[in-house]
Amino acid sequence: MALFYTPLPFHPGEISLHYKLHISQNPDFENPTIPHLSPLLSRQLQISPLIALGTIDCQGWPVTTLLGKSSGGGERKEEGEEEPLAQPLGRNGVMGIKAQVEGLWDPVVEVLVGGKGDGDGGSGRGSEKVVVRREEEGKGRMISGLTIDLERRKRVKFFGRMVVGALGWRRREGEGDDDGREESIAEMQLVLKVEQSLGNCPKYLNKRHIKPAISKPELLSTSTHLSLHALQLISKADLFFISSANNNSDMDTNHRGGPTGFLRVASHDDENNSESATVLCWPEYSGNRLYQTLGNLAIYPKAGLCIPDFDTGDCLYLSGTTEILVGSAAEEFLPHSNLCVKFSVVSLRLVEHALPFRGVLGEKSIYHPRVRRLAKERFAAAASATTTGELQQQQQEQQATLLHQTKLTPTISRFRFRLHQPNTSTSPTAASTYQPGQYITLDFSSHLNIGYSHMRDDDPRSLNDDFVRTFTVSGFYQQHQHQHQQQDQQQQQEQQKEEALGKCGDEFEITIRKVGGGVVTNFLWGYGDDESHQKENQYRREKEKEGEHLVIDVRGFGGGEFPIFQQEEQQYQQEQQKKTPTKTEKKRRIFIAAGIGITPIIPFLSTSSSSSSSSSSFLHLNLKILWTVKMEDLAFVWDVVEEVAQLEMGQEEEGLSKEEKKEKKKKGKGKRD
């Protein structure tokens, strides 16, 4: 039988998000939500082991819970006799839910059917009587839900209104409290009329096998200041459920998933400070671009969260206010994000063993991006290691033009870049904050971002890849554009050629290994010359003539100084300024590295960057390096050794001609071979 219906319009909150995020409003962009109980939902209700439910409490706060198939209170059932968690009832879009619940502190149970036994016609824990609440069909309390099968990565959303609900208590077979009282379990039954349903994609869901477990819930905390237990639960979460509302029109319950740690604690102040607020934050990853949850939050900035622990059965129920951060605001608060949500906790319930089931972790989602840390977390980490090593957003935007690639081994190359202002190729800009051992953050998104797509199975991580990478700077070279005020025409022409080739201005090098499947490293290997170093200049000239410079946006320098080296260097310089330097035996420092991990120490070993005011020779340090490498990387070792050897021969080579230097280098190459 064919079904015909008029598509539901987007509401103003959803439209505002579409506008802010520059989503095209073409005639083909329709709301795919089905205005009734769809066949897909009908099927998923009967096979999904979990259902997340949301509603609005009497104070207007959204609340969320998670229901699942349980052990049935100790009753044994034959294989195939398990009752479904939910099922459609007839053909009128009505569905029913029957589930064991946490009847004392579950906020959704409390709102819908009067948890704690305070509803009509019921009594408290241990009673076999039931609490019944009836709602007029079509005008009942709003309920949103999400059927979710983690093992198959299937999920379908629905929204409806409550028709009737019941909460019953019964004794658990063969169980009792330590004081001799018999344990009771609560069971909730709901009937609701479905008004909307929509299937969702399988992204950001880790597979889990759901199995029943005995539930003996205990309330641990109601303080909005997170306890250690709550913090640990949040830190290990790779999934939570969120409910939101479009005022009194409809609701939405959905999940947010990601790698462990994707949900960040932005603010967690001392419990003694009553004015402080607990704030959580999470990134909004690439999805179907309907923005139904965020659209609701734009109109009604309140949400209810349910954060389950599938290992222990503990559950954290939260309600609070929300703030949507878009574009630069999101980037400043949660770097590498174009969209994120701040959640300020207003009410909290931490319940131990609340869930009558457990989840055994299986295959993780291939769509998970890397964990994005808060800006203040990143800066705090840098500040703990160094006083000047923070990632600095330059007041003046910078770009870097690739000058050439030097192939050291089949998988290791050295890339040299020139720093300059945007839209110029010969206007150098100084990176005066650079210190040896730092990294540079480069943004490749203008070259690698191919735009939006809902799914991308051939390269799933690229959906949320910001193409921002950090590389250790293995060399920095500060050159001066104008060394002589008076120049003849020929000299000026030669200087212009030098500038065109990137030989003026601040230049830096990164030494990196090509990573299998690495988008950025594979992209870089496509530039430069892999056949011989002699052809690099010609290759670069041809590229420049064709206007094919590789220009990368620079986020800034940052990261780890080596305080011990800096202190000893300062002491050394002070001793050298004395007329009679004091000879003191220096402690031996040990640096351990594997493979390409040697790069942070290279600037300390080389004076090739000594023209930079912030770099100097550290060879007077009593330094021992323990460096392990693969056989195929021995050429890289020789390259580093040559850099150090040049320091010892520096004075001698100053008096040599170019031909003599070439001959000496040729002999050195013969020894290496």
Name the features.
eight-stranded antiparallel β-sheet; 673 residues; alpha+beta; Pnp Oxidase, Chain A; Elongation Factor Tu (Ef-tu), domain 3; 2 domains; 15 helices
Task: Provide structural commentary.
By secondary structure, this protein is an alpha+beta fold. The chain folds into two domains: about 10-75 and about 85-175 and about 180-375, Pnp Oxidase, Chain A (Roll); about 380-480 and about 495-670, Elongation Factor Tu (Ef-tu), domain 3 (Beta Barrel), CATH 2.40.30. The protein has 15 helices and 26 strands. Strands 1, 2, 3, 4, 5, 6, 7 and 8 form an eight-stranded antiparallel sheet that branches. Strands 10, 11, 12, 13, 14, 15, 16 and 17 form an eight-stranded antiparallel sheet that branches. Strand 15 (about 300-310) and strand 16 form a beta hairpin. Helix 1 (about 10-20) crosses helix 5. It starts with 11 loop residues before the first helix and ends with a helix. This is FAD-binding FR-type domain-containing protein. GO terms for molecular function: oxidoreductase activity. InterPro entries: FAD-bd_FR_type, FNR_nucleotide-bd, Riboflavin_synthase-like_b-brl, Split_barrel_FMN-bd.
